[in-house]
Amino acid sequence: MPEAASYRKVDLHTHSTRSDGRFSPTQLVDLAVEQKVSLFALTDHDTLDGIAEASQRAAEHGLSFINGVELSTQWNGVPLHMVALNFAEDNSALLSIVERNQTIRLDRARRIADLLVKQGLPDLFDEATALAGDSQLGRPHFATLLVEKGFVKDANKAFDRYLGNKKLGQLRDVWPDLEEVLTTLSGHNMELVLAHPKRYPLTVTKLKRLLSDFKKWGGTGIEVVSGNERPDSVRLLERLSREFGLKASVGSDYHGPFGPWMQVGKFTQIHESDVDLVWQTWA
């Protein structure tokens, strides 16, 4: 590996207010500069809306900026996230996936509201939509309303009692299949990276099956670290990246200042010399 790669502070997974992050794209870029990040991607959920603003601010700072987006998908009924990186913003194949997922997200929010009504709560869809504003409408907005209206003490209780996956199980199958997304985007001059693989309810054996399919259908990379992961998990993912011929990506998955361990550019150290870095050939 070129020696320079070891001295670049890279963060290729972050979120702004255009999806479920705390800071605007401009504020997030300012924070990346403050943290001395030298290569940065904004990867909001199923939207490219913040890229132009973030790119402009990055240019003002002289920060190397990479277009990114975190796409929702599923594999064998398991919801997954995939990060697309270093694409042209007008890529028609990607735009079609993003537009479809935006439609799914709106329908999903309507279904969440309906399921909450079935649990004896009022219809919160319109209020949640207003609360979301320019950001992605989702479960956190319903959680905020449940707290404000006194149904629960805090957001954690909202998810435990009403909004968790077990409570909203009917929503697990709404996202497009991984094979369809990968085959649509493969060959369109972008990196396709499996996000935070250790967060899924998969054994190592099943994770290997997923990675085999991911590679076969056109995936190019895997996040070997996402935020403050255990070092043994990072070593496992490094080995899997080599075993399946997938490039290694890294990111904080930063959403906001929700703890001292969360920061742009902060994640468990990787062994860069042991893996093929996804950003290695980027100018």
From TrEMBL:
<dbReference type="InterPro" id="IPR004013">
    <property type="entry name" value="PHP_dom"/>
</dbReference>
<keyword id="KW-0808">Transferase</keyword>
<feature type="region of interest" description="Disordered">
    <location>
        <begin position="1"/>
        <end position="21"/>
    </location>
</feature>
<feature type="domain" description="Polymerase/histidinol phosphatase N-terminal">
    <location>
        <begin position="10"/>
        <end position="75"/>
    </location>
</feature>
<dbReference type="InterPro" id="IPR052018">
    <property type="entry name" value="PHP_domain"/>
</dbReference>
<dbReference type="GO" id="GO:0016740">
    <property type="term" value="F:transferase activity"/>
</dbReference>
<dbReference type="Pfam" id="PF02811">
    <property type="entry name" value="PHP"/>
</dbReference>
<dbReference type="GO" id="GO:0004534">
    <property type="term" value="F:5'-3' RNA exonuclease activity"/>
</dbReference>
<protein>
    <submittedName>
        <fullName>Phosphotransferase</fullName>
    </submittedName>
</protein>
<dbReference type="InterPro" id="IPR003141">
    <property type="entry name" value="Pol/His_phosphatase_N"/>
</dbReference>
<dbReference type="GO" id="GO:0035312">
    <property type="term" value="F:5'-3' DNA exonuclease activity"/>
</dbReference>
<dbReference type="InterPro" id="IPR016195">
    <property type="entry name" value="Pol/histidinol_Pase-like"/>
</dbReference>
